[in-house]
Design brief:
With about 260 residues, the protein is an alpha/beta fold. Helix content is about 35%, strand content about 25%. It contains ten helices and eleven strands. Strands 5-1-2-6-7-8-9-10-11 form a nine-stranded mixed beta sheet. A two-stranded antiparallel sheet has the order 3-4. Strand 9, helix 8 and strand 10 form a beta-alpha-beta unit. Helix 8 runs parallel beside helix 10. The chain starts with a helix and ends with a strand.
């Protein structure tokens, strides 16, 4: 690996191994600190702030966030190279929003490509398109969240409007090697047939997009809000019932897209 990538520094809060989500095969997920959005349902609230934080977990105080070099991250990634090769897996950058640390994110993916490792990024695409252009040559798969087509409702639940996201999605669909649209299905926000159909129709309008993933809401991040002394604004809302997710799936399939629950 060239020193050009090896010495680039960034801030992460976790490296998760042996994941079978967020891209094909067995993957290593690198979670970067910092995000431009503040989604009410976010299951990684410790990712939102770029700053290093303290969080109580299981009654003990933990430090969340650490500064690392690309070389240090690659030491962990390379350990699982045989699993990537056998399963067609690789490395996925997540967060937070990985594009909030563009130099670091690009350097990690560039180092992976030097090693012949498949690369992916989970993103909101809420950034200047020039940032996305830098990462395009070294990213095999973009997993792009489209949360709502209505900008006012998007801003109400995430603190940001969606125009930039939708504009970037149109450009990314033309430029990316592969683009998959993912939708977190959130009660009271976007879980009606009409709203999911609207998102699916937008996804269908994008060039080269064939897959739509519906990700059911869950409350697994609730304890983290408690540990950070933050309010969990989704209250006691339950996860969508399996039958309702199947209904939304059938609704989205009317567009001709391949629709997957989960992924």
């Amino acid at each position: 690996m060239t020193e050009q990538f090896n010495n680039v520094k960034g801030r992460i809060f976790d490296i998760q191994k042996f994941s079978v989500h967020d891209g094909p095969g067995i993957r290593t997920i690198v979670f970067l600190k910092g995000c431009y959005l503040r989604c009410r349902w976010c299951c990684n609230p410790e990712s939102q702030e770029y700053s290093i934080q303290k969080m109580i977990r299981a009654g003990k105080e933990e430090t969340v966030g650490r500064d690392v070099t690309v070389g240090e991250v690659m030491e962990e990634i390379i350990k699982d190279f045989p699993y990537y090769r056998r399963s067609g897996g690789g490395v996925t950058l997540s967060g937070g929003e990985a594009l909030a640390q563009p130099e670091f994110a690009t350097a990690i993916l560039s180092a992976c490509k030097e090693q012949g490792i498949n690369t992916a990024i989970e993103t909101t695409a809420f950034t200047d398109y020039s940032v996305i252009e830098e990462i395009l040559p070294v990213c095999d798969l973009f997993l792009l969240d489209i949360k709502h087509t209505n900008s006012d409702k998007h801003k109400e639940f995430t603190t940001q409007s969606n125009e930039l996201i939708l504009d970037n999605a149109k450009r990314l669909a033309k430029d990316a090697k592969e683009l998959v649209i993912r939708v977190p299905v959130i009660p009271t926000f976007n879980d009606t047939c009409e709203e999911i159909l609207s998102i699916a129709q937008f996804a269908k309008s994008l060039e080269n997009v064939k897959e739509l993933h519906l990700l059911p809401y869950h409350r697994l991040g609730f304890d983290k809000y408690v540990g950070l002394n933050r309010e969990y604004k989704m209250g006691d809302l339950p996860s969508p019932a399996k039958e309702h997710m199947e209904l939304l799936k059938k609704t989205a399939e009317q567009t001709g897209l391949e629709v997957i629950i989960g992924g």
